[in-house]
Amino acid sequence: MVRSRERAALDRRRWRLYTAKSVGMRVIRANHLGMCFGVRDAIELANERAEAGPLTILGDLVHNAAVLEDLRSRGIAVAHDPARVTTHTVMVTAHGASERALARTRALGLEVVEATCPLVRVAHRALAALVRDGYHPVVIGQRDHVEVHGLTEDLDTFDVVLDERDVLALRSRPRIGVASQTTQPVDRVRSLVALIRRQFPQSDVRFIDTVCRPTKERQDAAVDLARASDVVIVIGGANSNNTRELVSTCSRYCSRVHHVQTEADLRPDWFLAAETVGITAGTSTPDDIIDRVERRIREFAAERADRTHPAAESRS
């Protein structure tokens, strides 16, 4: 398995070296992109447990259609209600779950395997610490996101904010503790924390930064990529929050940004007159999909070069 991965990585490097000199359109990748360690570990754990016996995942393990289809092809079931599970073993997704949800699931006699990302666990512990110290918890994130459900379900009282309007609707409290969904853009988080402090100058506002490092790295790299590109392609699942945030970030610095799930979504007219095309990808995007997208973009570039320089092509 290790040797096959090494060979695949070598093939990818050879392909990029071979095609890099082919045409006038430059294709570059963000310095940080694609699957994070939390997603890789969750997928690996799911495959290991499925080999040992029937497995059901509670919800989407990750927000990527290709990954989910691969899991289903291995016989792994998906259920959104523990009461409907027919296997003895169930797995919690990388997004995590509350202790209350875990207890309800175990009460059904099910064996629970947790694939929760370690950095999501950090966010859970941060919120618990804020509550323990007497702070009213405020979570920066999407109210309906599975990770936010997991973060807040154990709390008796809390608020979730995502924008300025949400902050302005908060009640004044003596002590306010702020943490965030791990995939939120850190600039947004810091901006909202600053707004909370301005909104409640008499309150003791404590902020614990729970934005995960892979998200920060991908966001920072996306800014650099977008600034250097005429067109940016962001690869990731349609329901992936961190992928959508990458699209939003890139759009602030590049006017031609497109979100695709696979190479089949690419359109040649996106790259007209583009000299530099940048590629980035969300934390649930497999390496092979990134490679296929890059290969297809380079094929578009080669086709454009053939049309632009037909005489040179005929002489070769």
Q: Give the N-terminus to C-terminus distance in angstroms.
A: 41 Å
Spatial strand order of the main sheet: 1-12-10-11
Fill in the CATH topology of the largest domain: Cobalt-precorrin-4 Transmethylase, domain 1
Q: What is the domain tally? A: 3
What's the overall average pLDDT, rounded?
90
CATH-level-4 superfamily name of the largest domain: 4-hydroxy-3-methylbut-2-enyl diphosphate reductase, catalytic domain
User: Total number of helical segments?
Assistant: 12
Which CATH-level-2 architecture of the largest domain?
Answer: 3-Layer(aba) Sandwich
Instruction: Quote the beta fraction.
Output: 15-25%
Elements, N to C (H/E): HEHEHEEHEHEHEHEHEHEHEEHH
Shape: flat
Radius of gyration equals: 22 Å
Largest sheet: 4 strands, parallel
The portion of residues assigned to helices is 40-55%
DSSP summary, beta strand count: 12
* Structure classification: alpha/beta
Please write the CATH class name of the largest domain.
Alpha Beta
Which regions are unreliable across 5 or more consecutive residues at pLDDT < 50? 13-22, 312-316
Describe the overall structure.
By secondary structure, the chain is an alpha/beta fold. The chain has three domains: 2-35 and 214-308, Cobalt-precorrin-4 Transmethylase, domain 1; 37-117, Rossmann fold, CATH 3.40.50.11270; 119-211, Cobalt-precorrin-4 Transmethylase, domain 1 (3-Layer(aba) Sandwich), CATH 3.40.1010. It has helices spanning 2-20, 37-52, 65-73, 99-106, 118-132, 146-152, 164-168, 186-199, 213-227, 241-251, 287-308, 310-315; strands at 26-29, 55-58, 77-79, 89-92, 111-114, 136-140, 159-161, 175-180, 204-207, 231-235, 257-260, 276-281. The strands form three sheets. It has a four-stranded parallel beta sheet with strand order 1-12-10-11, with helices on both faces. Strands 3-2-4-5 form a four-stranded parallel beta sheet, with helices on both faces. A four-stranded parallel beta sheet has the order 7-6-8-9, sandwiched between helices. Helix 9 (213-227) runs parallel beside helix 10. The longest helix has 22 residues, at 287-308. The model is unreliable at 13-22 and 312-316 (pLDDT under 50).
